[in-house]
Backbone:
């Protein structure tokens, strides 16, 4: 795919819009009361991150011929929603660290964290409605469907921890709901707020869905090969918690003998000890599981990029192209 803007131009635009999003998030809750609620809400939404989901809303709007100004409130809405999921996920997973800081329920307490999550989703709707003009019902329905999908995905994720018969297809269904459906929703509402044609909405939904799948498998991979400070959580935490990720299920499928028994033991014991992570990384390397994951990431990314050239705004489609490549650590 030939582009009219460079990677460097994308990075400048990304950083400019990221700064705008950060400023809006920092100002959003300053004057709200009571502080016992809005201080932890502010803690949740100002903890950093790539802000990929709000960027998907902005770029999808632009790619269909709209402008960033049309969807800033919607972009904030999806970030509020995303942080709602993180707050509640950390409680469910008993995670101590989020983005290199104490998770919210550890910083405050569980009751405060639950209420914070509840309030964040309400604030998300409040923000989204500010950008809805013509087809409000369809936009709100799309947003709501995204919330339902994420909750279903989280439920499957927890269910899989107790099941020993999870297939790779089961896993892909789960990550579609938990991660990819949210990215798909971001692209969809960005386009719908700008009254895009149905063809363009479908192209962008395909982009978001496949990019979300690639991003989640990348997240699984980084859990093994990433740097803890950059990744924002303990390396090997998926194995420690007994999560059935793409890497684990692929290793279970390909391994033999004592290696397979070790993987079965992970399921029996519902996880491993922190000092065993290196051992399981060696098993992954032995069966080329890391390479399998990388191929899967590239495949989903290529699927995401299909048909972007058909979108009406060339610069917007180029920005989506570069976003996909930046997320999987590749250049043009």
Residues:
């Amino acid at each position: 795919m030939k582009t009219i803007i460079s990677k460097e131009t994308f990075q400048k635009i990304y950083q400019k819009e990221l700064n705008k999003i950060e400023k809006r998030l920092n100002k959003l809750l300053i004057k709200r009361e009571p502080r016992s609620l809005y201080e932890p809400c502010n803690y949740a939404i100002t903890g950093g991150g790539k802000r990929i989901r709000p960027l998907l809303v902005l770029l999808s709007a632009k790619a269909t011929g709209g402008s960033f100004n049309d969807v800033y409130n919607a972009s904030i809405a999806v970030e509020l929603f995303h942080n709602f999921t993180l707050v509640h996920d950390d409680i469910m997973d008993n995670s101590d660290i989020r983005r290199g800081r104490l998770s919210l329920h550890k910083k405050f307490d569980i009751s405060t964290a639950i209420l914070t999550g509840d309030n964040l989703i309400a604030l998300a709707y409040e923000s989204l409605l500010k950008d809805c003009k013509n087809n409000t019902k369809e936009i709100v329905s799309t947003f709501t469907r995204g919330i339902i999908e994420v909750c279903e995905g989280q439920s499957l994720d927890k269910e899989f921890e107790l099941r020993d018969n999870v297939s790779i297809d089961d896993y892909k269904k789960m990550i579609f709901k938990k991660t990819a459906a949210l990215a798909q929703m971001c692209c969809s509402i960005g386009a719908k707020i700008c009254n895009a044609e149905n063809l363009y909405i479908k192209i962008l939904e395909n982009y978001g869905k496949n990019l979300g799948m690639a991003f989640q498998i990348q997240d699984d991979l980084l859990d093994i090969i990433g740097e803890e400070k950059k990744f924002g959580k303990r390396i090997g935490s998926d194995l420690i918690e007994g999560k059935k990720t793409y890497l684990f299920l692929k290793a279970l499928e390909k391994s033999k003998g004592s290696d397979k028994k070790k993987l079965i033991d992970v399921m029996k014991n519902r996880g491993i000890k922190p000092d065993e992570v290196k051992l399981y990384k060696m098993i992954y390397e032995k069966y080329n599981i890391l390479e399998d994951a990388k191929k899967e990431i590239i495949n989903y990314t290529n699927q995401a990029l299909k048909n972007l050239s058909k979108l009406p705004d060339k610069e917007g489609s180029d920005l989506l192209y570069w976003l996909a490549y930046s997320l999987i650590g590749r250049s043009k």
Summary: The CA atoms of residues 8 and 322 lie 10 Å apart. The chain has a mean pLDDT of 93.
